[in-house]
Amino acid sequence: MDLPFVVSAPGKVIIFGEHAAVYNKPAIAAALSLRTYLLVTPNEDSELIRLEFPDIHFNKSWRKDHFPWDQKPNYNGKPSLSQELEPELVDALSLFLADITSPFHYSSAYTFLYLYISLVSKTVPGATFSVRSTLPIGAGLGSSASISVCLATAFALLDGHISKPTIGRDERTLSESADCQFIEAWSFQGEKCLHGNPSGIDNAVATHGGAVMFQRKEGSMPSVRTSMRNFPSLRLLLTNTKTARRTATLVANVSTLVTEFAKTSEFILNAIDSLTREAYILMTKPVLDAEARRRLRELIRINHGLLISLGVSHPSLEKIRMTADLLALGETKLTGAGGGGCAITLLKESVEESKVLELVEELENEGFETFETTLGGKGVGATFNPTLDPSEFIKMDRIQIEHNVWSSDWKFW
Ligand SMILES: Nc1ncnc2c1ncn2[C@@H]1O[C@H](COP(=O)(O)OP(=O)(O)O)[C@@H](O)[C@H]1O
Ligand SMILES: C[C@@](O)(CCOP(=O)(O)O)CC(=O)O
Ligand SMILES: [Mg+2]
């Protein structure tokens, strides 16, 4: 595999159904124009593996012959959805990474090594792996899924499990290729390293792009991913509380609640199931008229109320919702795991731009960060032999990455 190359995968916005998705209920999500980029460059010392993760202030080098290769999983092809992480490899890596104390650093290094040892042969020369996100990290926008897809894709390319992508940026095909399925399956293993018990919607959207209704099934039954090809244009304001949190913790807290209040939780999860299905029907109508848009906003409000009941809101999220409610510009819900992170406000179509700017100004005065973003973008892609200087790449800001990296010749699977 000729180096250097860059792979990239999008983040996502879950519009309906987060957390319920973990309990096999449907959820609706769309790819974001904010993405993660992984630059792979050759090392002079082919025994060395170097990580450069400046977004989380983490750099690390290992000699690859020190890796626990004897625990390399031996299943060929892609793991099934019910395939749990290999306990022997998990144990060996927890020993190998014992010197890393930060949970953010640990989970990134653990995911990197779990996927590298699983996918890359010992004989493949070492390289330097530099990761940058234009996504806010730990903010409910699927940064874990986008890095999992980037790692799975880069390693699958390095070891020849998949071919180079061929689909052009402007081609509309939502690829269902075997390579895409391979990437999705292995990035799900990456999400397991990062989330513990993921539904699979985040890495599915990061792999395939577009917008989907996604439903995980029991056991090894394949998930159902329905592409929403005529995704309606929605006026969504994305606001980041900038309150850091870890999805794994929030998902675990909901699991405790579901165990402790099984019957009540079942009603909450079934209510989210019902509203997500109703939203899907509205969003796939040929025309989203004013009445349908009003009902969608109501469903946003109801979904958020149910997420409060699951214990995953946060005072900062409620502050965003209150600010938007006082201006009566639309309805607001948290997106992703909650506990901080981001909220989305589905604005009324009739709202004047000046009113939206007033809301943005108020939110930013309260210390929040708002994003204009487009939904339904491209999934995982790659560009080869980029004229990128790794030392420059790790210092670029969001605009520079989008101008200097995303603007080059990308191909998709
Ligand atoms: N650019 C990045 N560099 C290094 N690690 C990253 C990056 N983006 C995401 N991660 C990993 O993913 C974790 C965030 O995943 P998660 O808690 O699920 O939040 P979210 O998916 O909502 O962004 C981070 O703590 C880090 O371990
Ligand atoms: C809470 C959940 O529904 C979405 C998590 O999204 P994020 O990691 O907060 O971006 C978990 C899942 O579906 O895997
Ligand atoms: Mg995540």
UniProtKB/TrEMBL annotation:
GO molecular function: ATP binding; metal ion binding; mevalonate kinase activity
A Pfam family per the record: GHMP_kinases_C
GO BP of this protein: ergosterol biosynthetic process; farnesyl diphosphate biosynthetic process, mevalonate pathway; isopentenyl diphosphate biosynthetic process, mevalonate pathway
Subcellular compartments: Cytoplasm
Catalytic activities: (R)-mevalonate + ATP = (R)-5-phosphomevalonate + ADP + H(+)
Domain GHMP kinase C-terminal, first and last residues per copy: 291-358
Pathway per the UniProt entry: Isoprenoid biosynthesis; isopentenyl diphosphate biosynthesis via mevalonate pathway; isopentenyl diphosphate from (R)-mevalonate: step 1/3
E.C. designation(s): 2.7.1.36
Domain of life (superkingdom): Eukaryota
Alphabetical keyword list: ATP-binding, Cytoplasm, Kinase, Lipid biosynthesis, Lipid metabolism, Magnesium, Metal-binding, Nucleotide-binding, Steroid biosynthesis, Steroid metabolism, Sterol biosynthesis, Sterol metabolism, Transferase
Function text: Mevalonate kinase; part of the second module of ergosterol biosynthesis pathway that includes the middle steps of the pathway. The second module is carried out in the vacuole and involves the formation of farnesyl diphosphate, which is also an important intermediate in the biosynthesis of ubiquinone, dolichol, heme and prenylated proteins.
Chain ranges of the GHMP kinase N-terminal domain: 122-210
Protein name: Mevalonate kinase
InterPro entries, per the entry: GHMP_kinase_C_dom, GHMP_kinase_C_sf, GHMP_kinase_N_dom, GHMP_knse_ATP-bd_CS, Mev_gal_kin, Ribosomal_Su5_D2-typ_SF, Ribsml_uS5_D2-typ_fold_subgr
Organism (species): Komagataella phaffii (strain GS115 / ATCC 20864) (Yeast)
Entry's family note: Belongs to the GHMP kinase family. Mevalonate kinase subfamily.
Annotated Gene3D superfamilies: 3.30.230.10, GHMP kinase, C-terminal domain
